[in-house]
């Protein structure tokens, strides 16, 4: 979701309010989707969605 009122218009995971860029960067560092999901208290599917979005946006 893009909303100028949330995260200054940066893309976020709608249900969780976490920026997709931050989640994708955490995955690059950790290389473990379950770990990243645990860090942000989000489901693995949300981590996968953030990674997909950031790959498409690049």
Describe this structure in words.
The structure is a single chain. This protein is mainly alpha-helical. It has a domain at 20-57. It is built from three helices and two strands. The protein has helices at residues 20-30, 33-40, 44-57, and strands at residues 12-13, 18-19. α2 packs across α3. The longest helix has 14 residues, at 44-57. The chain is globular and about 25 Å long. 21% of the residues are buried.
Topology:
Layout: E1 12-13, E2 18-19, H1 20-30, H2 33-40, H3 44-57
Antiparallel strand pairs: 1-2
Helix pairs in contact: 1-2, 1-3, 2-3
Strand content: 5-15%
Low-confidence stretches: none
What's the total count of β strands? Answer: 2
| Radius of gyration computed on alpha carbons | 11 Å
- Percent in helix: 55-70%
Précis, in short:
The protein is mainly alpha-helical and 58 residues long. The protein has helices at residues 20-30, 33-40, 44-57, and strands at residues 12-13, 18-19. The longest helix has 14 residues, at 44-57.
Descriptive tags:
mainly alpha; DUF433; two-stranded antiparallel sheet; single chain; globular; 58 residues; 7% strand
């Amino acid at each position: 979701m893009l909303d100028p009122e949330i995260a200054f218009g940066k893309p976020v995971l709608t249900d969780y309010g976490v920026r997709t860029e931050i989640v994708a960067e955490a995955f690059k560092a950790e290389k473990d989707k379950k770990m990243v999901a645990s860090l942000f208290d989000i489901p693995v599917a949300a981590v996968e969605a953030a990674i997909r979005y950031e790959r498409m946006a690049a």
